[in-house]
Design a protein that fits this description.
Blueprint (H helix, E strand, L loop, with lengths): L2 H21 L4 H8 L3 H8 L7 H11 L3 H5 L13 E2 L5 E4 L8 E7 L17 E8 L1 E6 L2 E6 L3 E5 L4 E5 L6 E8 L21
Antiparallel strand pairs: 1-2, 2-3, 3-9, 4-7, 4-9, 5-6, 5-8
Length: 203
């Protein structure tokens, strides 16, 4: 491996570490408590502002349940299964759906039934782009100053640098939704057939 190859591998490792963490549904604070690496250091590694040490990579690979080859981009992540489902804050279940670490990836979230009207969702902001689709129930999406109630079939797309948060919109059952997330701002590319009479080459 040349010096350039090594630099490229290290540069790509930050987004892969971030994707691996988010696939596990873990916060920087939770990972910091588990590994002893400060949240600020983790954040700088994920955003490429700091090169990870071998010790840090080994700790994070173990914490996230991924191989060094996966973090280096030399092998795809293992096939997701129901055993990868994780329970995070307030009983939310997260199931990774993509087979790789890094790049555009998908996961399914399930929010449990609530008995009382919820408080406004706690908001976070980070780099990336997110596409969200509700499968079942009513989802409260707090996006900046906006409050949206999304129902089955509703889709939202937004820059995750905008403060955002979600919650079950109220009593009535659980909420299931899909998320497609591009940590580097990757987006979905809608493709539709050309309208009748139009030359597809000219579009």
């Amino acid at each position: 491996m040349t010096d350039d190859d090594m630099a490229d591998t290290l540069a790509a490792m930050g987004p892969r570490l971030r994707a691996a963490r988010e696939r596990r549904g873990a916060t920087l604070t939770a990972v910091s408590c588990a590994t002893g690496i400060s949240p600020s250091t983790l954040s700088r590694i994920e955003t490429g502002r700091r090169k990870p040490t071998l010790e840090a990579v080994l700790q994070l690979a173990k914490e996230y349940g991924v191989s060094l080859d996966e973090l280096a981009g030399a092998a795809p992540a293992s096939e997701p299964s129901t055993s990868t489902t994780r329970r995070v804050g307030d009983g939310k279940a997260v199931l990774p759906l993509t087979r790789y670490v890094g790049g555009l990836h998908a996961h399914k979230h399930v929010l449990p039934t609530v008995q009382d009207p919820p408080a406004r969702p706690r908001q976070v902001a980070h780099n990336g782009w997110e596409w969200l689709c509700v499968l079942y129930g009513r989802l409260w999406l707090a996006l900046g100053d906006q409050d949206l109630i999304l129902r089955a079939g509703d889709v939202a797309e937004f820059d995750t640098r905008s403060p955002h948060g979600v919650a079950n919109a109220g009593p009535g059952g659980p909420v299931e939704y899909l998320i497609m997330f591009g940590p580097q701002g990757e987006r979905l590319r809608p493709r539709t057939p050309p309208a009748p009479g139009l030359d597809p080459v000219a579009q």
